[in-house]
Design goal:
It contains 19 helices and eleven strands. It is an alpha+beta fold and 412 residues long. The strands form three sheets. The protein has a seven-stranded mixed beta sheet. It has a two-stranded antiparallel sheet with strand order 6-7. The protein starts with 5 loop residues before the first strand and ends with a helix.
Length: 412
């Protein structure tokens, strides 16, 4: 289909192709056209705040070249200008990072007015212009790109780090709404190195504003024997790194990240002990999830891990009845998939310690064996014996406890 106006591939598709990465989504900028021009060519409008259209054949997004001007605090306060006289370079100038401010012409020519290719080669995340400071979401995006490209050696440019700190000091991140924070947070949890998201936010001061429950963990000591890394914040980052190593599931990673929040509220006079931190962690997980409007599935798993990760670590020492209590509290019999997530997050906690990164976690096998034994108990004989109500529940628990005891003994 030949179009009567100029179009350019832009953004992530250009960046990823130059990096040799798979290109999944393609976005285009249209230069020298009006909304009526695109409608006449059969494009379907979908943009609410500015003209975005879907290609009539490919369904890919085409946006009119535009400029943006800051009009109020936060990220909603922008005046958008689009017209046929807006140039490609002006459109690219409003973007966040130089590596995202490149375009590709239909003949394959790369248009790179702000040094994106050089920054790609240097593995540098650098802002395009001072206008970066107008949108606090960009702080979250830079942190997320750091989590995506850390394995390639990418780091945040010094001048961009300084600008991000200035934005935090000016209170820009305080204007972010919970839904937007969670959207970027959840995306970052899916990246290869999500711990880098937390590190970048902490470096610029945004973590203390957005996720203070996590920020206060840094500098809090733990007993050196089980925790050679000592610092609770360092341990938390190591746990998230191990969770990413064990699972691509963002729910597992989220639960692993929040499992020790209660240690941040331990009175200093009790350090390095953190007695009762599990219960405090549950309260803080619930508060954080309420504030950011986190989906229920994330919250429920995070609460289960915060509450019972210590018990899971003691699984080799626990009696059958106590193992059954863990199974019941995690609702494993009704939700076996979440129990598997629970075990992964607990294993990440076990491995997220200096020198423990590759150590086995036999506790997970013990808990899985106990779960399978409990699930295998046949209810029919109890029904035939006439048990109902509370008597049935008691008899079933006894039968499951005996089954777990037999399974555990067989493993020894």
């Amino acid at each position: 289909m030949t179009l009567p106006f100029k179009t350019y591939l832009v953004g992530g598709a250009v960046r990823d192709r130059l990096l040799g990465l798979p290109v999944t989504d393609r976005d285009y900028v249209v230069v020298g056209a009006t909304p009526d021009d695109l409608l006449a060519a059969g494009f379907k409008p979908v943009g609410a705040d500015f003209p975005v259209f879907l290609h009539p054949q490919t369904g890919e997004q085409y946006a009119l070249a535009r400029t943006e001007r800051k009009t109020a605090r936060g990220y909603h306060g922008f005046a958008v200008h689009f017209s046929p006289d807006v140039t490609l370079e002006q459109d690219l100038l409003r973007r966040d990072l130089t590596i995202n401010a490149m375009a590709e012409a239909p003949d394959g020519t790369i248009i790179d007015p702000y040094g994106g290719q050089a920054d790609l080669a240097a593995r540098r995340l650098r802002h395009v212009s001072p206008a970066f400071a107008e949108d606090p979401v960009r702080i979250l995006r830079v942190a997320r790109f750091a989590a995506r490209f850390a394995r390639m050696g990418s780091t945040v440019a010094d001048d961009t780090r300084a600008l991000m700190r200035q934005m935090v000091a000016a209170g820009e991140v305080d204007a972010l709404v919970p839904e937007r924070v969670w959207q970027e947070f959840e995306r970052a949890l899916r990246e290869p190195d999500p711990q880098c998201f937390i590190t970048v936010l902490r470096d610029c001061g945004a973590l203390a504003r957005l996720l203070p429950e996590l920020d206060r963990l840094f500098g809090v000591p733990q007993p050196p024997e089980p925790h050679p890394e000592i610092d609770t914040g360092v341990h938390t980052l190591m746990v998230l790194q191990q969770a990413a190593r064990l699972s691509a599931d963002p729910q597992v990673r989220f639960a692993a990240l929040l499992h020790d929040l209660g240690k941040g509220t331990t009175p200093p006079e009790q350090w390095p002990s953190h007695h009762g931190h599990e219960a405090r962690s549950v309260e803080l997980v619930n508060a954080l999830c309420t504030r950011l409007k986190v989906p229920a599935a994330y919250r429920e798993l995070a609460v289960a891990v915060a509450r019972d990760h210590g018990n899971a670590h003691r699984a080799l020492e626990l009696r059958a009845g106590t193992l059954l209590e863990i199974i019941e509290r995690t609702d494993a019999l009704r939700r076996p998939q979440r129990f598997a997530q629970f075990l992964l997050a607990c294993e990440a906690d076990h491995r997220g310690r200096l020198g423990f990164e590759d150590r086995p976690y036999p506790q997970a096998a013990r808990l899985q064996r106990a779960f399978e034994a409990a699930r295998g108990v046949d209810v029919a004989p109890l029904v035939e014996r006439g048990f109902t109500g509370e008597a049935m529940r008691s008899a079933l628990r006894q039968a499951r406890t005996r089954a777990i005891a037999a399974a555990v003994k067989a493993d020894e």
